[in-house]
Amino acid sequence: MVTPVDVLSNCSKLKETIPDFCTSAVERFGCFSTCGFSTQKYKPATCSPPSLPSDVYAAGGLKSVYKEGEVINVTCTTSGSLVNIIRCTKTGWSGQARNCSLATSCEDKILSCQNILAKFPEFCISKRSSNSALTYCKKTCGGCPGKTQCKDPVGKKYSRTSKAEVISPGHVMTFKCQNDSYHVSGDLQRACSVSGALLGSEPVCQSTPTAVDIQFEKIRKRREDLPKEVAFLLDDVNYRIPYNGKITKWYYYCQQAGNIDFIVFRPSGLRFHSIVA
Description:
Layout: H1 11-17, H2 21-24, E1 46-47, E2 56-58, E3 66-67, E4 71-76, E5 82-89, E6 92-93, H3 100-103, H4 113-119, H5 130-136, E7 150-151, E8 158-160, E9 166-167, E10 172-177, E11 182-185, E12 189-191, E13 204-206, E14 263-268, E15 271-276
Antiparallel strand pairs: 1-3, 2-4, 4-5, 5-6, 7-9, 8-10, 10-12, 11-13, 14-15
């Protein structure tokens, strides 16, 4: 057990002035001690060797113990071709090793293809991932015979921005909110599943905007090759805000107390001009 500490210096005051501070405020993650959060050391789970069908084997052989996150490439004994991949998780192996005879059918080689496609709609068609996608997720990416298609859901407050009204599994349909409404939740980019339904959730658009935290769950460590006491948030998709509106709060977490100056650089021709925030 690691002793919880506060990163922010005014945690007690925040808790006193905001009744539900420790359950709803974004700043609560900087007040572990004041809010009574526990910080246990992470202990990865382990898995015993899986039971494999007689006509397949584990590439590299089986070990006596596997750590959480380790994978086994299940390979066909006769042809040496990959059957599927199973992963050690907290609850055991992510899937069962299939028989070699099933590998010849048009199926996905891993069980998480639909989940991957739901989180990354361009998984099957992006240049960076399409080769792997078709190798391991052939069915999910529309590489199997069939006539399954997904149709435009025709939302009342949002409209389709991609060209096709009907798409095949693995392809993507994109949307936008109408000019008089704001996107507050749901997905504006949705891939077609093998069941004929669009993955992800339907976009929710409303007439008034709501304050949201953008990618707060993806806290990034400061690059170590930068000059001391300097950090940059560049024009990168991971930092870009996909909304029209105003930035009302910025969060920056430090290991030590001190003052922070935020400077915004806006493009002007071929140069950038700074605006001190």
